Amino acid sequence: MVTYKIQIYPSQSITDYVRDRKAQILDEFGQYKFYNSHPHVSLFSFQADISHEHLITKALKEASVFVDSFDISLNGFAYLKSNRAIYLKIGNGSQVARINQLFYQKFRESAKSFGIRMVDPVFAKYPHMIIGSEFEQKAFLKVHQTFIDQKYRETFAVDQVRLLRDIGNGKNDFVETISLTEKVAVSLKWPEEKVWMVNEPQMSLFSHVA
Fold it and tell me: Is residue 94 within 8 Å of 199, Cβ to Cβ?
């Protein structure tokens, strides 16, 4: 079993901005969790047998006909004390979550029809864009003071998602880009399958997703 991740990558200008903030923190405080991760929004992750990778890609493509794009509005920084995390908030998070819910539900249905056994699925009910986490306490307080009042508002839209394979040590292998090509309109319904539902950005639940 390996861990697969479905992520959104932002526009180049946002990518550059987040990388600059990560580098700024790295220069001042040294390494921290997610310091070298590509700026992204995690949608969901799961474990599956690598021999089913081609079927996973096929299931994602089948699910893509129900979604045309993810439109995301970033709206300032926020933090979580429990694991000392700093992240960019998504102002329209509930809208993004509903689209993500539909995409995940349709992917799950297709995966089941292909005989893919998914283990430990993690679904991002409240997506966000992580900057870093698990700072030393003193560093976290300084990072918090530096960023929490900064005004940063940007929007971007993407019509594709990325399938990544976790290879350990915080690194991922790129598998494939899945284009979103909405052709079917359906009503939304929460998946019946039991998955982790992230009620707020608790980064411990995303430790294997970034």
Answer: no
Residue 121, C-beta contacts closer than 8 angstroms, at least 6 positions apart: 44, 45, 46, 108, 193, 195, 196
Q: Please give the sequence-ordered ranges of beta strands (E in DSSP) within 26-159, or none if there are none.
A: 41-48, 70-80, 85-90, 119-123, 129-132, 153-158
How are beta strands 119-123 and 41-48 bridged, if at all?
Answer: antiparallel
Domain ranges of the chain: 2-186
Dihedral sign for Cα 103, 37, 81, 195, please.
Answer: positive
The pLDDT tens digits for 166-178 are 998 778 999 999 9
In 3D space, the residue among 135, 166, 161 whose CA is nearest the CA of residue 43 turns out to be: 161
**Which pLDDT value is given to residue 85?**
93
Angle in degrees, CA 66, 70, 73, rounded to 5: 155
Please name the CATH architecture into which domain 2-186 falls: Alpha-Beta Complex (3.90)
What Cα–Cα distance (Å) separates residue 209 from each residue in 6, 19, 120, 132, 181? 8, 18, 11, 13, 25
Using a cut of 0.85, tell me whether the model's pTM lies above it.
no
- Compute how many other C-beta atoms are within 10 angstroms of the C-beta atom of residue 206: 23
Q: Which residues lie below 8 Å from residue 69, measured CB to CB, with a gap of 6+? A: 157, 158, 159, 180, 182
